[in-house]
Amino acid sequence: MNPKRLVLLLAASGLALSAQGADLLGVYRDALVSDPVFQSARAQYQAGIEALPQAKAGYLPSVSASASRFRNQVDTSTSPQVDYNSQSLSVSLLQPVFRWQNWIAISQAEQQVLQAEATLAAARQDLILRVSQAYFDVLLAQDNVALSEAQKTAISEQLAQAKRNFEVGTSTIVDTLEAQARYDQAVAKEIADKNDLEVKKRALQQLVGKPADALTPLKDPLALEGPKPASIEEWAAAASASSYAVAVSRAALEIARQEVERAKAGHYPTVDLSASYSKSKSPLQSLDGSDITTDTGSVGLQLSVPLFAGGATQSRVRQALAGRDRAEQDLENTTRTVAQSVRQNYLNVTSGIAQVKALEQALASTQSQLDSTILGRDVGVRTSVDVLNAQQQVFQTRRDLQQARYAYIMNTLRLKAAGGTLVEADLEKVNRALG
Question: What per-residue confidence (pLDDT) applies to 346?
Fold first, then answer.
């Protein structure tokens, strides 16, 4: 095969994907309104923030009213039967004055709101990662299909040339059989790659709720940037303050600490302001049969002092203390896990940059090797099998390079997500690398 012919095939494998379609940012914004997982997180957030008004209600007045109307019948042995109607109306108000557990509940609810906000922010970061991964999975699958088609075409030309050489007696049947075997393998690989592409498209469709057939590909070459700041320990230290996972655990610890105080409040007295008014009407006690109306009103403070509850209050305090200890360990574990995730993704980014650069150099080297192998075969010092092997190296290196580029982008996003700094602006930056 002519070396220029293979270069054109490789270029075509990339140009086949250059048609403009949906970009990463557009797909992400579709997923914001279509992804069931994120919509569930939104609903969970709305439910979570309702904890605060519910807790505040514990220190607001409660007012109730009731009304009744009865038909009464009185029959005694000393007087004739009396039938009469009675009506009553009552209104009552209860205003907590001192209930320490209610104040604690408000503080706990404020922490629950912080938890809900951090959980929703983490869900948004997770959506960015899931959409990006699914998007680049489709691009990689498209690249693999294009490379499989180009490789099959290149091998088919080698097979045709091997057959011609065998017919004129310049090569053996071994070259033809080897080329045929490689061609059959290429056909099988193409089928597998096309199937994988359909699977990856369906995975992306699950996120956005509609088919994603045309996606904007990655530009070539890809600009590579290292993590900023450049210190891995700076990333790990910053993550403990900005990670949403740590924020959720930190709020859980504060809630657990306040739960101890809330349990202790079972020993404290409570004071409530109580007021009521009632009005009733009945003719039963009237000598002339006319209705008697009674108005009753009361207002006062009610003090309640707990003396003994069978040991339940002490048990709840011990339970809350154990819950606080557990929350402290959970926070420590989350902090360590986040720091480890940050360090791992930091190393993945830095090593990914080196890997992409090495594979770019390897692609140039394997292409040069293929060119020299083809020339060697033409002058009789290399065989067709050598050419097939060199071609295989070129295509495999190109596959590895594309995969390394996508992995570098994903590791960059994962690093920021682990540190709690991943936002839509980061996705916009990645989107500018498409075209």
Answer: 97
